[in-house]
Amino acid sequence: MATIPDKFHDLLHVKKCFANLATVLKDGSPQVTPVWFDEAGGRIRINTARGRVKDRVLKPGARVAMSILDPDDPYRYVQIRGTVVSETEQGAAAHIDSLAKKYLGRDQYPFHDPAHARVIYEIEPTSFQSNR
Predict the structure, then answer these.
(1) Which of 26, 73, 77, 119 is the most buried (most CB within 10 A)?
(2) 132: pLDDT strictly greater than 80
(3) Domains, the chain
(4) Whole-angstrom distance, CA of residue 72 vs CA of residue 45
(5) What pLDDT, in 10s, does the model give residues 75-106?
(6) Pair 123, 82: CB distance under 8 Å
(7) pTM score above 0.70
(8) Distance between CA atoms of residues 79 and 81, nearest Å
């Protein structure tokens, strides 16, 4: 596992940064989605609903890339490449609520849909690049 340098702590933990997550679809074409994220134990965690495109392609072993831009200085970024190492529905509703707090300032995710279970994907970084 690659360790993301402490100089990017603000992008991972403090600032309200979006990650542009790149995946590969079954037909081999690339797909990029802006996502909310957090970091725990050196892994990047994202949350989605079952049935969405991300849910269909993000399976353990899938390789992904993401870029995270500093909202205060878009010329400062970190690019992370990694592998999906886990997928779980356990704790996913609480996780999306914590992301809603970070990104929306709300205690609960306002778009809960009980018809679609939430899922957390953990991505283990394998490399990173930055411009600073």
Answers:
(1) 119
(2) no
(3) 6-130 (2.30.110.10)
(4) 23
(5) 999 999 999 999 999 999 999 999 999 999 99
(6) yes
(7) yes
(8) 7
